[in-house]
Amino acid sequence: MTDKKRFSLVPLGDKLIVRQDAAEERTEGAHGDSVLLPEQSKQAPCTGVVLAIGADVANYHVLKGMHVLFANMTGSQVPGQDEDVLLLRIDDIIAIDTSK
C-alpha cells in the first residue's frame, strides 16, 4: 500500500494527495444475493484516504490518514502509482468520514 511506504510527492499550497478507494466488485441484490460486476460497469468511488497535504490545507482540519469524500470528476491522476492516487484541491473535499 502507498501509505505504508514513504510517499515521495509533496503537494503544494491548497493541494492534497488522496488514495482513491477501490471500486465495488459486486453489487448487493434485493434478496441478499450479489452480482459480479463486469470491468466496464465498475465506477470508481469518490472516497479515499489522505496520503499527503499541502501547507495551506492545515486550516481546513484535514489531516493525513483521514477518510474523505470528494466531488465527482475532480483532481488529477498521479502518474507512476500502482493504485488510484489523485491530486485534489481542498475545495474538492466535500466531507470527512469520521466512522473510519
Question: Could you walk me through the main structural features you see in this protein, from its secondary elements to its overall organization?
Answer:
- The protein is mostly beta strands and 100 residues long.
- The chain has a single domain, classed as GroES chaperonin (10 Kd Chaperonin, Protein Cpn10, Chain O, Roll).
- Helices cover 0% and strands 35% of the residues.
- It has no helices and 8 strands.
- The strands form 2 sheets. Strands 6-7-1-4-5-8 form a 6-stranded antiparallel beta sheet, with no helix packed on it.
- A hairpin with a 5-residue loop joins strand 2 (26-28) and strand 3.
- The radius of gyration is 15 Å and the shape is globular.
- It starts with 14 loop residues before the first strand and ends with a strand.
- The model has no long low-confidence stretch (mean pLDDT 80).
Tell me which oligomeric state these chains represent: single chain
- Computed structural class: mainly beta
Low-pLDDT segments: none
How many structural domains can be distinguished in the coordinates? 1
Overall average residue pLDDT: 80
User: Care to count the β-strands?
Assistant: 8
Q: Mind telling me the CATH superfamily name?
A: GroES chaperonin
CATH fold-level label: 10 Kd Chaperonin, Protein Cpn10, Chain O
Largest sheet: 6 strands, antiparallel
CATH class: Mainly Beta
